[in-house]
Amino acid sequence: MRASLLILSFLAISACDQGSAPGDQPAVGAIPKLSMPLPSADAEPAPDAVVASWAGGQLTYGQLMEDVKGRLIKQEIEYLNERYSTLRRAIDSKINESLLEAEAKQRGLEGADALAEKIQAENSTVTDAEISSFYDENKNRFRGKPLEQVKEAVSAQLLKSKQGEAMNNLVEQLRNQANVDVALEAPELPRLEVAVGVNPPRGPETAPITIIEFADYECPYCSRGYSTMKEVMEKYDGKVKWYFRDFPLSFHRNAVSYSVAASCAGEQGKYWEMHDAILDNQKGLADGGLEGLAGKIGIDVAAFTACAGDTARNKQVMQDMTDGQAVGVSGTPAYFINGIMISGAQPFENFESIIERELESAGQGS
Q: Which of 44, 222, 278, 328 is the right S-S partner for 215, CB 3.0 to 4.6 Å?
């Protein structure tokens, strides 16, 4: 067994994809394909260079780039992030292996593998109380199965988690003691100019960090992204303003109506209350349930219903989608942090990394 700890990684993108039905979505944890970065300016054709012609028409390089620049920038960001992630994993692996070998030697053991086995042996038991507590907190995951049927699986999962946490704690302790300093700088990511749309922001207008999200209220990955954004807003209270723009996917039949509902609630000053209510009830919200949510958040239901029937609201929602496509959005959720794109329901740490760098550049580093 190689005893090492992955300190930093850009996880695979998990998103509802416009180009596929839900059943065709890649599995969470799949390795993203690498994309090559944009060619240098010197290698690019001139904007007026003709790249294709046909009877009655032609296409210049500038016209072509207007259509695809958003997607190309998205590919460049994915490539740069994955490249940096690969380098960081290699650095951290070398550091961790070296520190663990030294710790094993100090303890009189024959190497990092022996040390890992010792850590596992020291954390080889799980109590019935721990098993019961985990079962009670996660009953919905077991689909009604009694504890007796799943006890062995729960015990194995808790044991693996306990041993992994013990190993991670040891590596973190060793790294702190060794004053590890990684000089490799994260890449400068390209930025896009993205309009904030018409929905009100969450957070102060003066905040130095602007996050613009394109999302679909029925997308399960957007629900996961919503949880991450709540973490972001809590940690960076007062430093982030968050705009939500609609990107309803064709295979989610209620997505447009949910977006319209939030917009109509916004007419009564309750945009974010409806946004939260829909995502908090994503799995249980049935047709006709929007009026119930409207009542719960304290708005005039009759006025809300009349607003929801206005077809102009649908046009506003679809304009958001058009604007998103223009900057390379093809699935949900997609985020732009001060113009830097993040695709998919990625972990809080990936948001944190960009936000911290942006705050530092603005002289407001934490």
A: 222
What amino acid occupies position 147?
Answer: L
The answer to whether the peptide bond before residue 200 is cis (omega within 30 degrees of 0) is no
- What sign does the dihedral 87-88-91-96 (CA atoms) show? negative
Residue 5 in any domain: the answer is: no
Q: In degrees rounded to 5, what are phi and psi of residue 260?
A: -65, -40
Element (H, E) at 331: strand 331-332
Count of structural domains within the chain: 2
Domain assignment present for residue 94? The answer is: yes
Q: Does 221 map to a domain?
A: yes
Shared-domain flag, residues 139 and 241: no
Residue 351 domain boundaries? 209-361
Global model pTM greater than 0.70: no
Per the document, the length of the chain is 366
Contact between 197 and 153 (Cβ < 8 Å)? no
**Residue-wise pLDDT tens digits, 320-331:** 999 998 888 889
From 66, 78, 62, select the one nearest 190 (Cα to Cα). 78
Which H helix or E strand runs over 242?
strand 240-246
* Half-sphere exposure for 104 (CA within 13 Å, toward CB): 19
* Same domain? 171 vs 215: no
Q: How far is CA 245 from CA 99, 268, 324, in A?
A: 47, 18, 8
In this structure, how many other beta carbons lie within 10 angstroms of the beta carbon of residue 176? 9
Indicate whether 25 belongs to any domain: no
> Does 247 lie in the same domain as 111?
no
> 240 with 207: CB under 8 angstroms?
yes
In terms of domains, do 243 and 339 share one?
yes
Of the residues 161, 189, 217, which one is the last residue of a structural domain?
Answer: 189
The 10s digit of each residue's pLDDT in 34-77 is 344 555 555 789 999 999 999 999 999 999 988 888 788 878 88
Coil, strand or helix: which one is 189? coil
Residue in 90, 78, 88, 99 with CA at minimum distance from that of residue 36: 78
Tell the burial category of 32 from Cβ atoms under 10 Å away from its Cβ (0-12, 13-18, 19+). middle
